[in-house]
Write a structure and sequence with these properties.
heterodimer; A: 114 residues; alpha+beta; Arc Repressor Mutant, subunit A; three-stranded antiparallel beta sheet; B: 905 residues; eight-stranded mixed beta sheet; six-stranded mixed barrel; 30 helices; elongated
Chain lengths: 114, 905
């Protein structure tokens, strides 16, 4: 794989999964592909850690799963966002944006501003 | 919402374990296959694509485990793992497991047994509907001296009952009752039965419906009306075989036929009294006077009324009572104002329990301490065992087991031990309860209600788990944190154990010694109490050879008073003629017989009494000639009574020594003095002074007593008509007392005088005496058992610690001996370690004992709660036994061969 990929910041995988399934139901592999696609392959996701995260999110009630048929007519488990998950995604996104703003502000500060 | 979701997903995951596993498998396989397909489509050879897909995915099993954990499934999984592992570990060390389970079982069993008693006697409500509303109408009269020591306070008089019942605002219902005996005739042998007489309102207050038939009604309480009776369940079963048609039949009670109207259900007691027949009191309202304080009052409070409000209500009615009734012409009802009668209503439960709760709580507390000692012992064993398992734990930690997981594994082991101990303990408790019932005071209230029921079972489970937690937590916390690397390094060589590691076990052993000291001091104090009780001369001698029995001659059987005395005299003569009988006599009541005797004031001729003042009340007893000789009660001055004086109705009387001293200074000064009960009665001359008798048990002070002849004018109330005491206790002095053959001859001797007389309460005076000290002996036995258990467990604890430490220090001892230490030095070293622990335990234990023994003051007699002799003796015993426990390991240390010890490494 591409060496320019960034490692995922801790705690952000959940948010990315919620975002990915918010665009439509996906199976596990689909979640992986969609995150890679949206991030234009700039993020490296440990495939092994994806499923525990999915199970955890489902356990917490933010996503729900059901068995369905994949594009190539295979049985696959599809995940979709629940109402609670949607609210969770929203607050997480806001938190993330605020944090990013603050961090960016700090990093952009110049000697004159201090 | 989310919580529910989480629980549901967890339940689903745990419950449908296989399905979840299958789905997880399918899901991950799908992922890898889809990935592979994508790679193949990207132009990579299939075989290489499969390899790449697997590689990129990472550890599949690891991912699965994390998934399970995300669902909370792994918790259950690993729990089962720990359980299985724990069982295996316990199975591998049967010695440790066996000793631990046995120790715990003993502790838990003893605690469960005692708790079952505490639960059913002290904690459970009484067996009446809404029992919390029930109260005993207890009242005190500090102005009526003589009544002051009376445990029952001032009982109610019938006129008081009528005033209270009719004028109160605080009660739903109220009544009075009095226990007694009656003879039932008309069946094969005349039988003396337990009778309770009740006024209207008693059954309504207790509100337990009859088993069959009906309650005694207000109509049954009309004097001269139809005479009725209710039966107790046991008597109904015994005499009528539980036949419901018994209702409506007649029963001859005290020579009068009464119609049976109903039967009370099984287990029903009138407060604390079991009874065979329940008879209406049927007071004749027109003939009532103020006095006659002989009836227990019970009532049911209106809802929301407090005890204080009810007391106030009774206080309000007392002047009404004084104004509404009289003691007869030329008497002043306002003398009762000087008595300062004060209502002190008590919850009925308190009345039933009496003074037994102190003893029970002390026993429960001491047994609880034994449990703590048992836990300390098992904790000690666990510490040794865990130490031996250090390496295993280190390996587990190195393999990635977290601290929590190791703590949990150790705790699960100890909890399993606790539960196993609890199971065995429950079985032991079953036997223990039987033992308890055997040694418990015969008058322990609510004995029949004792059972191993759900709350007791819950207590056992809780105790098992708590104890498991208690002794498991110490080693778990101590060793779970040990650093893997460190342990690996030291596990290879058995260096002398570090002080730090040894400390926990020493602390436990010291704690055990301290608790054992507390228990032994308590037991010691009870032994001293018992000794003190035994030293008290009760007022009769050689109780085992003193046969007592009660006979009542109702006036429906024999009308004439003098005839009654002749019959009693005849019985005495027949009894004295039985081979082996030295003498016989009778008295209205023997000491410690456990029922009330009459009390009244007396006036001495040579004293001046101010108008209106009532002199102190004295205990009244009525005796036959030869009674004092038979019972072994010493005549301090003067002489006893003769039959000539009895039949001649000579005005002669005897008084107790304390009464003689109080009134005339010395016993001899009393002789020839004159006294009387009522002004209208002739003066009686004091002919004898009798030693003080411990009437209400050896713990209580002897009441001032007047001994009247059993046949005399005007026993109660005004008028000077001749009367005889009809119910008396016969006393027979014989080597054969209590034997079956002797009792048969006694029965024949009685029946040859009158075949209609039933014999009641046939006992030796020893039984009466034992019963009166039953509470003390019960507490003594229980504390003795607890103390012995504590001592043994404590000694095992000390032995274990010393013995282990000696085995750990073999090398050190070897080196010391090699360097020239003499065996004596080594012996001293080990003994010093043991003595240090024992002394530390003694010092701490002293503190605990000083605080705790104060709680048992009410159980002690003739010994202070801080009795120095007991404390010193127990401390010496403890140190001595600790030395013995150290001696064996010390001998082993002494005999260490330096070469062997060094080669050992």
């Amino acid at each position: 794989m591409d060496k320019k990929q960034m490692e995922l910041l801790q705690g952000t995988l959940d948010m990315l999964i919620l975002k990915a399934v918010s665009l439509g139901p996906l199976h596990g592999y689909g979640v992986l592909l969609r995150i890679q696609q949206i991030s234009r392959d700039r993020l490296e996701i440990q495939q092994g850690s994806l499923y525990p995260a999915l199970y955890r999110l489902e356990h917490q009630g933010w996503i729900a799963s059901e068995w369905g048929e994949s594009e190539n007519k295979r049985k696959a488990k599809y995940y979709r966002l629940t109402a609670a998950g949607r609210r969770k995604l929203q607050t997480e996104a806001e938190k993330w944006n605020r944090m990013a703003d603050v961090i960016a502000g700090i990093l952009e500060s110049t000697p004159e501003e201090v | 919402m989310r919580l529910r979701n989480r629980i549901w997903s967890w339940v689903r995951a745990v419950a449908r374990r296989t399905r979840m596993e299958r789905e997880m498998d399918a899901e991950l396989r799908f992922h890898i296959e889809a990935f592979t397909e994508d790679l193949v489509r990207g132009g990579i050879a299939r075989q290489e694509a499969v390899r790449r897909a697997r590689l990129e995915f990472g550890g599949i099993e690891g991912a699965k485990e994390e998934c399970r954990e995300a669902r909370g499934v792994s918790f259950v999984d690993s729990l089962f793992q720990d359980l299985r592992f724990g069982l295996r570990t316990l199975g591998k060390t049967p010695g440790f497991t066996g000793v631990s389970i046995l120790t715990l079982a003993l502790g838990i069993g003893a605690n469960t047994a005692v708790f079952s008693v505490v639960n059913s006697v002290l904690l459970k409500p009484l067996g009446y509907p809404k029992a919390e509303e029930l109260v005993a109408l207890h009242q005190v009269a500090p102005g009526a001296s003589g009544l002051a020591d009376f445990e029952n306070g001032l009982l109610l008089s019938p006129s008081m009952y009528f005033t209270y019942a009719e004028q109160n605002h605080a009660f739903q219902s109220l009544g009075v009752w009095v226990p007694g005996t009656a003879s039932v005739t008309g069946v094969a042998e005349p039988e003396q039965v337990r009778m309770v007489e009740v006024s209207d309102g008693v059954l309504q207050t207790l509100s337990v419906p009859p088993e069959t038939g009906r309650w005694l009604s207000p109509a049954d309480q009309i004097p001269g009306g139809p005479e009725r009776v209710m039966l107790g369940y046991g008597y109904w079963q015994r005499q009528f075989g539980g036949d419901r048609s018994a209702v409506g039949r007649n029963l001859t009670v005290d020579s009068r036929p009464r119609e049976i109207v109903g039967v009370m259900p099984q287990g029903f007691r009138l407060v604390d009294a079991e009874f065979d027949v329940l008879v209406p009191l049927a007071f004749d309202r027109g003939k009532l006077i103020l006095a006659g304080f002989g009836y227990q009052g019970i009532a049911r409070l209106k809802s929301g009324v407090t005890l204080a409000e009810a007391d106030a209500d009774l206080t309000r009615m007392l002047p009404m009572w004084i104004d509404s009734w009289s003691n007869g012409p030329r008497t002043d009802p306002h003398v009762y104002e000087a008595w300062r009668i004060t209502p002190k209503i008590r919850p009925l439960k308190q009345e039933v329990l009496g003074n037994v709760s102190d003893a029970l709580w002390v026993v429960m507390g001491t047994i609880g301490l034994v449990m703590l000692i048992a836990c300390a012992n098992v904790a000690n064993l666990m510490l040794v065992k865990v130490e031996a398992r250090q390496q295993e734990l280190a390996v587990r930690a190195a393999l990635g087991a977290g601290r929590g997981r190791i703590v949990r594994a150790l705790l699960i082991e100890s909890l399993m031990l606790g539960l196993m101990g609890g199971t065995l303990g429950a079985a032991l408790a079953n036997g223990g309860v039987r033992l308890l019932l055997a040694v418990s005071p015969a008058n322990l209230p609510r004995l029949s209600e004792i059972s191993l029921d759900a709350p007791v079972f819950g207590f056992t489970v809780l105790l098992s788990l708590l104890s498991g937690l208690l002794f498991g937590l110490i080693p778990a916390l101590k060793y779970s944190g040990s650093r893997a690397s460190l342990t690996f390094r030291s596990a290879g060589r058995s260096m002398s154990t570090s002080r730090e590691r040894h400390r926990a076990r020493s602390v436990l052993a010291v704690g055990q010694m301290a608790m054992a000291l507390v228990l032994l001091v308590s037991a010691g104090l009870m032994i001293r109490t018992f000794q003190a009780l035994r030293r008290v001369e009760p007022g009769f001698t050689d109780a085992a050879r003193l046969q007592v029995l009660r006979i009542s001659i109702p006036d429906s059987l024999v009308k004439q008073p003098e005839r009654v005395t002749r019959i009693q005299n005849g019985i005495v003569q027949n009894l004295a003629a039985i081979p082996g009988v030295r003498s016989a006599g009778f008295i209205s009541k023997m000491p410690m017989e456990g029922f009330d005797a009459p009390w009244d004031a007396i006036y001495a001729r040579d004293k001046v009494y101010s108008d209106g003042a009532i002199p102190p009340l004295r205990l009244f007893k009525y005796v036959s000639p030869d009674f004092f000789l038979t019972a072994g009660t010493r005549i301090v001055a003067g002489r006893g009574l003769t039959w000539t004086e009895v039949y001649g109705q000579q005005p002669v009387v005897m008084v107790s020594e304390n009464l003689a001293r109080e009134m005339w200074g010395t016993p001899s000064a009393a002789i020839g003095k004159q006294l009387t009960e009522f002004r209208s009665m002739p003066w009686y001359e004091v002919i004898g002074v009798i030693e003080d008798v411990h009437e209400n048990g050896v713990q209580d002070k002897s009441p001032e007593t007047v001994y009247w002849p059993s046949l005399m004018g005007n026993l109660y109330g005004p008028g000077n008509k001749l009367d005889a005491v009809r119910t008396v206790t016969f006393v027979i002095r014989s080597e054969r007392a209590g034997t079956e053959g002797f009792l048969n001859e006694v029965r024949q001797a009685v029946w040859s005088v009158n075949a209609n007389l039933p014999l009641a309460s046939v006992r030796t005076m020893q039984e009466v005496y034992d019963k009166s000290v039953a509470r003390t002996s019960f507490t003594l036995v229980m504390l003795g058992i607890a103390g012995a258990m504590a001592l043994v467990l404590g000694i095992i604890g000390v032995y274990g610690v010393i013995s282990y430490s000696v085995s750990q220090r073999r090398r050190e001892f070897g080196i010391r001996v090699a360097l020239g230490a003499r065996p004596g030095n080594v012996l001293k070293m080990v003994l010093r370690q043991g003595v240090k622990m024992a002394l530390a335990g003694v010092v701490i234990g002293f503190g605990g004992a000083l605080a705790l023994t104060r709680l048992m003051t009410s159980l002690l007699f003739g010994v202070a709660a801080r009795d120095p002799a007991t404390f010193v003796a127990v401390a010496a015993l403890l140190v001595l036994v600790a030395l013995l426990a150290c001696y064996l390991p010390a001998r082993r240390a002494m005999s260490v061969d330096p070469m062997v010890a060094l080669r050992y490494e």
